[in-house]
Amino acid sequence: MHIPDAMLQGTVCPVTAAVAALGLSATAYAAWKTAKKPSALSFAAVSALIFAAQMLNFPVHFGTSGHVLGAALAVALLGTPFGILSMSLAVLMQCLVFADGGVSVLGANLLNMAIIAALPAVIVRKFILKENTAAAAKATMYGVAALVSVLLASTACSVELAAAGVVPLGKVLPSMLFIHLLIGLCEGALTAALYPVFAGQIQTADNKRSWLVPFGAAILAAFVLSPFACQSPDGLEYVAGMLGFGHLSSAFFAAPFADYSVPLLSAGMFSTAAAGLIGVALMFASGYGLRRLFR
After folding, report:
1. Over pLDDT 70: what percentage of the chain?
2. What is the pLDDT of residue 204?
3. What is the pLDDT of residues 214-240, one digit of tens each?
4. pLDDT (mean) for 153-158
5. Could you tell me the CA-to-CA distances from 29 to 1, 21, 22, 91, 286 in Å, in that order?
């Protein structure tokens, strides 16, 4: 659901950038003040995992693909402020290093994918879950939150496209909700399945090697599985092509590993795998450094 450059124009870009900056400033303040901070290694490993998971596009519907958004899983594993910061770091890395999402619309992508998409999991974590909630119930609730997060993000994207005059809301919203409902159902199931696997590791404070599990999964996803990801258009690309605004996708910034490929390597599976491995390493290093700022 990364919006490319030129798809949004006018006042929508600065407005969404301002709202995203305000939201992330509040998030950073909350991260500084919270007593429950994930370790630097755990934060880095989960951030790398979210990045790698987003590389794994899966087939959805009539030549369309989707990928895990990851906001609900990030909040579930890292807590509210650090979950949002992890998602923001992933969106920023994808934009500046891999040209996945435009620079001029970075504010909108941060707002949609890191802030708005995190809200359902934040509500579940803060208002619904109790200390004695069963593990299966937690996984189910976060799975539902993941489904809702995809629908909320696609709704926000539709409103922004309509506000920019790209396409009427009455046309784009039903199409976006339909295709992202299918993607969201897959994300919900994956989140419910993955949360118990990683939560037990990340939330075990006395296990100093717990970060190795999500970090190992990130390497597996990025280096081994990403070359086999579905190459069909994702939900936004599919809707853009169907409604006639797919040509609004020019890039304003030459990213070093655009389209998840390494320039020194010929295009193909190995180039994708190498780019994925580079991305995981960069996410881990930047995540570790970011978390260290909140000591």
Report:
1. 98
2. 53
3. 999 999 999 999 999 999 999 999 999
4. 98
5. 27, 12, 11, 20, 19
Please, are residues 276 and 219 in contact by the beta-carbon 8 Å criterion? no
Rounded Cα distance, 142 and 76, in Å: 7
What is 12-32+39-292's CATH topology? Arp2/3 complex 21 kDa subunit ARPC3 (1.10.1760)
Q: Sign (positive/negative) of CA torsion 295, 138, 204, 40?
A: negative
Of 102, 82, 84, 83, residue with least CA distance to 94:
102
Token digits of residue 226: 């990403």
58 bridge partner residues:
66
pLDDT computed for residue 252 by the predictor? 76
Coil, helix or strand at residue 124: helix
pTM of this prediction? 0.95
The token pair at 184 is: 């969201």
Domain boundaries, given as residue ranges, for the chain? 12-32+39-292
pLDDT of residue 273: 96
How many residues comprise the chain? Answer: 295
Give the C-alpha separation, 91 to 198, whole Å: 22
State the alpha helices, DSSP H only, in the chain: 12-33, 40-53, 71-78, 80-98, 106-110, 119-123, 135-163, 169-202, 212-219, 235-243, 269-292
Which residue is it, tokens 């193909």? Answer: 268
Nearest-angstrom CA–CA distance, 63 and 73 = 27
Confirm if 216 and 93 have CB atoms less than 8 A apart.
Answer: no
HSE of 91 in the Cβ direction (CA atoms, 13 Å)?
31
